[in-house]
Each structure stands twice: as C-alpha cells, then as structure tokens.
Amino acid sequence: MHVFDLPQAPLHFLDLPWLEQAQVQAATLRLDLIDPLISGNKWFKLRHHLQQAGASNAPGLISLGGNHSNHLHALAAAGKRFGFATVGLLRGHAQDTPTVRDLQALGMELHWLGYGGYRARNEPGFWEPWQARYPGWHCIPEGGGGLAGAQGCALIMQQARAQIAGLGWSDHDAWWLAAGTGTTLAGLVLAEAGAHAVHGALAVPRDHGVPETVAALAGTHGYQLHDACRGGFGKFDDELLTFIADCERRTGVPLEALYTGKALLALRDQVAAGLFKPGSRLIFVHTGGLQGRRGYL
Ligand SMILES: *Cc1c(COP(=O)(O)O)cnc(C)c1O
C-alpha cells in the first residue's frame, strides 16, 4: 500500500421511517470511519496535496481555517503521520478549543491572523510573506479546495461503487452530500461525468460562492444544489438538534450539526416533497467532521 492510499470507508443501509414511507432506499458511505484522526472528506481532499508536497520535497504544508476546522485537523494529523511539518493560519484571535489543542498536540505551528487578516486570504499577494517565511512549503487553499482537492474526491465514488453489489443493488440513482465550499461535490460531479445525479445540501448560504466554485471546477451540469443551512453556517435550531438525536438513536450513525446533520435533514425534506421516485437508491456521503462537534454538542 502506498503511504497515501486510503482505507476503505464502509457503505451500509440507513433505516429511517421517512425513507421507508417514500419507498426510497439510502445507504451511507462512512467517511467518518476511515481513520481515527484523518477523518472524512478532508482526507480525500488532501491526498493530491500530499502527493504534490512529496513530489516537490516540500518540508511542510501550510493552510488556513477556523478554530474548529476539520480541514486543519486532518492536515495536522496527516502531516504528523506522513512526516511533513505543518503550519496553520487561523481566523480570529488565539482561542483554546478542543480542535486547537489537538492541532498543537499534533505538532502544527499556529499563527492567529485576526479577523481582518483572515479576510485578506483571497487577495493577491496573501501568500507571499508566508512563502518567504517558509520557503518551499506547499500552500493549500482554505478547506483544501481547488482542483487538487476535487480530484482526490474521485476516490469517494470508487469506494462506494466497489461496495454497492454488497447491498444487493445493481446500480444507484443519486448521491447526496453536504457542501461547504463545494469542492467535494465538484469532485464527484467530475468523476461521475453525468452517469449519476449529484445533490449538494448547502451548509452555507447560497450567496457564499458554492455555485461559482462548483461551476469553475466541474461545469454546470450533472448536479443540483439544495438550501440546507437553516439561517447560516454554524446556526443550530431545536428541530435540527432533535432530528440529529433521533437519527442517531435509530441508525447508530453519529452526525454533527454543521454539515452531516443539516444535509440529512434537507434530504428528509426533499424525500417528503417527492424529489425521488419510489424505488430510488441513494448514497448519502457521511463527510465526517465529528471532531468539530466537541465544541458544541
Ligand atoms: C468540510 C466539510 C464539508 C464540506 O466540504 P466541501 O468540499 O468544502 O464542500 C462537508 N462535511 C464535513 C463534515 C466537512 O468537514
């Protein structure tokens, strides 16, 4: 096995009454289970970046995120596992969260950029001082985005396809997954090339750039976006938290409230609204993120 090869994520049925009522079958691809530390879709998004860093003999990797960031968490763990130093550029001012403590324990060097400094992350010239300070290091855009991130997500499709026969399915009809930047969604759309529909549940408001990101990486066909953020990224309400608790009790699958819980709730609403014909077979991608819920659940 190559060092950057990925473990197989299990695929299993989700038994929920609202699926059964609509005669829709759903299985979940458990990216949350691939590794105790490098969890979820972030691992797939990092893979090409790790390969590029390895190929160019980069001494380390630098990226950005917030103080509950699943992306920085996966990056710090991957760096430690595969022998790269890591630097995290964080939004806001120094804070002590379970994620930040893990980043430090995994050896990531942290720089707090403040809010204004973090907002400058997409401006030309943002990386120059960091490249001067860390010469030859590999810089990764926020959230592991870009084409390298999307390409790594093609493997998500392969992992699911390799297991659908085990469910007794000859094929499946559609994908359902949470979208934050839309990079993972774009990766699936690229890999599918129109073969199966891809549905993205937006964990952020529609005007936060997901449609543009997906269009830039994968074009405008082969997918649909659904509003799922419930008032904003990171906003929770009682219906959401009750829904998560109920699904966890019925299925044993842990969810968090930023992405996977909201995505599954949006799926319930769309299934109830008749988006999928009876007999449809869906793959719900569990994108991980459970480390982040120590901050709030
Ligand atoms: C980051 C993340 C997403 C969003 O992935 P994108 O590729 O940015 O759309 C979805 N779910 C979880 C759990 C995440 O951590």
* Largest beta-sheet details: 6 strands, mixed
Query: What's the Cα radius of gyration?
Result: 19 Å
Distance between the termini: 36 Å
Order of helices and strands: EHEHEHEHEHHEHHEHEHEHHE
Estimated structural class? alpha/beta
Q: In percent terms, what proportion of residues is strand?
A: 15-25%
Tally the beta strands: 10
Note poorly predicted spans.
Answer: none
* Largest beta sheet: strand ordering: 1-2-10-7-8-9
Which architecture of the largest domain per CATH? 3-Layer(aba) Sandwich
**pLDDT averaged over residues:** 95
> What's the helical proportion of residues?
25-40%
Q: In DSSP terms, counting alpha (H) and pi (I) runs of 4 or more, how many helices?
A: 12
- Indicate the CATH topology of the largest domain: Rossmann fold
Molecules bound to protein: pyridoxal-5'-phosphate
Morphology:
globular
Q: In total, how many domains does the architecture comprise?
A: 2
Keywords: Pyridoxal phosphate
Organism: Pseudomonas alloputida
Protein name: Pyridoxal-phosphate dependent enzyme
Domain Tryptophan synthase beta chain-like PALP: 14-288
